[in-house]
Structures are given as structure tokens and as C-alpha cells.
Write a structure and sequence with these properties.
6-stranded mixed β-sheet, 4-stranded antiparallel β-sheet, Immunoglobulin-like
Length: about 200
């Protein structure tokens, strides 16, 4: 083979090798997609626990005392104080429910009106808390709550029976605190006006 043909063959071989190598490089580098790493974040669950508040007061936690007041214009102003004599705390809000009993334990018919109201505003002489709407009281051992009451000592065509015991039912409870009234409550016509419980002895 002549030198010219050898040179030409080498040239064609070089071209073929170069073309094949470029095709291989382009095939490997034509498209590259990079996917960012996935990050997982764990958030710890937060549990919130709310401690329950004090329970409502029960009659069995209290002892009662009758406080004789004063008379004015045919009405008698008095009050009843109940004192917690058990451990722990409880809450009290609202008006008492009263039952009047005579010396033999017999029921004396009576109707109590809750005050203050639109028709009884400012009915009580003192303290000012007696003329306020009910508020929530939190009571511990040896702490007291009081309510005021007004009853008439003037008979209007009826007798005035003497109640020697007041059974005081707390709001939301069935049991009662028994309170001895001395002197007796003579609620003529069987009507009384009662304030909400308020703090104080």
C-alpha cells in the first residue's frame, strides 16, 4: 500500500474514532436532573392539661349561725352566717333556699323572694354586698359566707308563727345546714326577702 493510502486510512480512522467518542460523551452528558434531598421535620405533640377547679360547696361542710338584726318600719333585718369546718376549698354562688320549722319540727309555710331584683333593689340596710348580684365565693377551712334576710313582724289578717330552726339549702345541693334562730323568726304572712351569699362573717 502506498504511503498516501496509508495516510488517508489513518485519517479516516481518526475521524471515525473521534466521532464515536463525541457521541458517547454527548449521550452521557445530554441531560442531568438533580433532586434536592427531602427533609422530614418531626414536631412533638403538646398535651395541655387543665387542673379542675374547686368543687361546689356542700351543706355538710358548714356550720350555721343566726345573727339577729334590727327592726325598722315593721320589718326585721337579720342574717345567717355559714362557716366551712372541713379541709380543702369549694365555691359558692347564688341564693339560699330556706325552710322554716317550728319548735316541734313542723313546717311553717313561707315564701322567699331573691333580692336584689327590679322590685327589691337596695332592700338591705347593710352591708352593701347584700344588694349586689351574686358572685362566686371560694371558701377554705374556717372561712365564712353570709346572706341577709328581711321578714315582717306585722300581721295582716294572719298569725305570726315562730320559726326556731332555719334549714338553709345551698345552691345546687339537696342537703341543708340547720341553723337555730334565737330569738325565733316570726315571719308574719310567711314572706321573706333573701340576699345572695356574700363573703364575710
Amino acid at each position: 500500500m502506498s504511503r498516501a493510502l496509508k495516510g488517508l486510512a489513518l485519517f479516516f480512522a481518526f475521524v471515525v474514532i473521534y466521532t464515536i467518542s463525541r457521541h458517547a460523551i454527548d449521550a452521557h452528558s445530554s441531560s442531568t436532573t438533580t433532586t434536592p434531598p427531602t427533609t422530614t421535620t418531626s414536631v412533638a405533640a403538646v398535651t395541655t392539661t387543665t387542673a379542675p377547679g374547686p368543687a361546689s360547696c356542700a351543706a355538710g361542710d358548714f356550720a350555721g349561725r343566726f345573727n339577729q338584726g334590727q327592726g325598722a318600719g315593721g320589718d326585721v333585718y337579720a342574717s345567717v352566717t355559714i362557716t366551712k369546718d372541713t379541709a380543702g376549698t369549694c365555691t359558692l354562688k347564688g341564693w339560699p333556699r330556706l325552710t322554716l320549722l317550728d319548735g316541734q319540727g313542723g313546717l311553717i309555710p313561707a315564701t322567699a323572694t331573691d333580692a336584689p331584683s327590679a322590685t327589691t333593689s337596695g332592700a338591705f340596710l347593710s352591708p352593701p354586698q347584700a344588694n349586689q348580684p351574686p358572685s362566686t365565693l371560694t371558701l377554705g377551712n374556717n372561712q365564712s359566707a353570709t346572706f341577709d334576710l328581711i321578714y315582717s313582724d306585722v300581721s295582716v289578717g294572719s298569725s305570726c308563727p315562730s320559726a326556731v330552726t332555719l334549714s338553709v339549702q345551698l345552691p345546687g345541693g339537696a342537703a341543708e345546714v340547720s341553723v337555730t334562730a334565737a330569738p325565733p323568726v316570726q315571719a308574719c304572712n310567711g314572706t321573706l326577702t333573701v340576699s345572695p351569699f356574700f363573703a364575710g362573717a
